[in-house]
Amino acid sequence: MTDLTEATLLRLFIGESDEHDGRPLHEAIVLKARAFGLAGATVLRGAAGYGRSSRLHTTKILRLSDDMPLVIELIDVGDRIEAFLAETNAMLGSCLVTLETVKVARYGHDGGLT
What we know:
Belongs to the UPF0166 family. InterPro entries: N-reg_PII-like_a/b (IPR011322), N-reg_PII/ATP_PRibTrfase_C (IPR015867), UPF0166 (IPR003793). This is DUF190 domain-containing protein. Pfam families: DUF190 (PF02641). Helix 1 packs antiparallel against helix 2. The protein starts with a strand and ends in a 10-residue tail after the last strand. Helix content is 24%, strand content 37%. Strands 4-7-1-8 form a 4-stranded antiparallel β-sheet, with helices on one face. A two-stranded antiparallel ribbon has the order 2-3. The protein has 2 helices and 8 strands; from the N terminus they run E-E-E-H-E-E-E-E-H-E. The chain has helices spanning 25-36, 78-92; strands at 5-15, 19-20, 23-24, 40-45, 48-49, 57-58, 69-76, 96-104. The chain is globular and about 45 Å long. The model has no long low-confidence stretch (mean pLDDT 87). It has a single domain, classed as Alpha-Beta Plaits, CATH 3.30.70.120. The chain is α+β, with helices and mostly antiparallel strands and 114 residues long.
């Protein structure tokens, strides 16, 4: 059996057109996560979605949106994710933020996040 490490998965749901200090918000968050030393970050672009406004964002022909939904997933141990979230709170505006406890089966050659 593989040793499992407990970690926290932080998900941020934002729009592609969201910005922070003149740069795309997703880029600012990923660069901040890297500087913070988090274990990993991934930005996923959605094909369709809506948020609090209920305005549909889609890639359908004749209605190409310039504000597609993005999900940013960041992972590390719980304390580091919570510290990162506290430090970036002002950047996040009205985005949806979720936290989830996950089990990491493998991360790099040694398998752990520590």
